[in-house]
Design brief:
about 210 residues, alpha/beta, Metallo-beta-lactamase, Chain A, six-stranded mixed sheet, 4 helices, MBL fold metallo-hydrolase, Metallo-B-lactamas, RibonucZ/Hydroxyglut_hydro, UPF0173_UPF0282_UlaG_hydrolase
Length: about 210
Amino acid sequence: MDIESFVKEKIKWLGHASFRIEGSKSTVYIDPWKLKKPVPADVVCITHSHYDHLSEEDVERIRKPSTVIVGPPDCQAGFGKAFKPIAPGESLTIGEVKVEAMPAYNTDKDFHPKKNKWVGYIVTVDGVRVYHTGDADVIPEMADANADVALVPVGGTYTMTVKQAAEATAKINPKVAVPMHCGDIVGTLEDRNSFKSAAKCSVVILDITT
């Protein structure tokens, strides 16, 4: 399966910064929030502790006894032993899924300071490296991602603008980019089309899975 087909068939945008990746053996969520039709999760990755990314209520709706929940230490909430703390530069292998934590921080605003050690993730599922940048601006570490797919915020205010997100794709150099973090709280769904025009790579615009 080529990367664009993988994105269209296996990656589900759930709105805002929330995604489900449907691997052949594992179901992975990143920042589940406002879930409409919960599907049981094998792995849940939380980027940081803001309410629109860490939703304990939504995690509980998809959690199984075997579900592993990964996040920075301040995201442990009430998850108990299911929670595995992670910091930028660290990685975990959970079954068939490899989870690598990337730094995620703002450079020109203070909503996501570097000192918090919040993260984005490179999740390898069925051999495809999917990079969810988290709530980040354009940062130097993006050049080291070696990602096949980049899930990139475009809504501005708290993260990158469309123009900055396009700059990020030049740094990340993925095969395919997917715009996110728009259409709820900040940004509009039209920002996705503007990003597609500006990005330095192929762009797939995903409709919200309901």
